[in-house]
Design brief:
By secondary structure, this protein is an alpha+beta fold. Helices cover about 45% and strands about 10% of the residues. It has nine helices and four strands, in the order H-E-E-E-H-H-H-E-H-H-H-H-H. Strand 2 (about 50-55) and strand 3 (about 60-65) form a beta hairpin. The N and C termini lie far apart (about 110 Å).
Amino acid sequence: MATRQFGEHWWSKRLITVLESFGYGPRLARGRGYARSGAVQELEIRPGEVYASVQGSRRRPYSVTIEIDVLRPEQWDRVEKQLAGRVDLLSALLAGQMPEHIEDAFHDTGLTLFPTRREFVADCTCPDMANPCKHIAATCYVLADRLDEDPFELLAWRGRRKAELLRRIESLRDAQAWAQVDTSPELEEAPLGECLDRFWEGAQPLPELPKPQPDERPGAILDRYGPLGVGVNGEDSRQAADLTDLLRPAYAALARR
């Protein structure tokens, strides 16, 4: 039977690698068997803390806590601006995925996503003086499994829940999009009373009207439209002269002027 491995995705593997880099390798190995046996009965991820109930040799389970620093609001503001500004990170997060280069958004602001040795504080109620004890070690491996199921729990450990994070980076994305829109102030128009003499002037001169063809007879445009179907003095156009016929003398008179 194959031995169960912990950490399937890059983020859970990275967590185990980080914890082992603290010099906990041999001690963490003690907890693998506990983790595989199901000794970790309960595990909850809270901002800044992981709590677990681990069954040991005694009847009553031991309580394990693993603490890291919660990022302050202004620190999260910087991280979220980085996330909103990178299309690759933003699109993955909005799709419910954990982008592999998300750590860059933290590093670029002088922060870290995964715990550092300085801030990592673990405690267990067991009598074992070693730290991490096998109960803490088992909790670390089960924590990696939990992160495999939901990588956003890693961000929650740092103090930002998934729903709030996505809402904030979407808002930042929209704000950045609006900032790219031309918002230069419009030219202030002078009051009408001050520009009556040039009211009909435009910024560009009007194009010259096309000259009529030499052989075009007066009222030719009326022929193009045909009967307008409009009577005179309220009479039906079928019983009275059409308006088109009445306009022809006027066009002829204008042509003679």
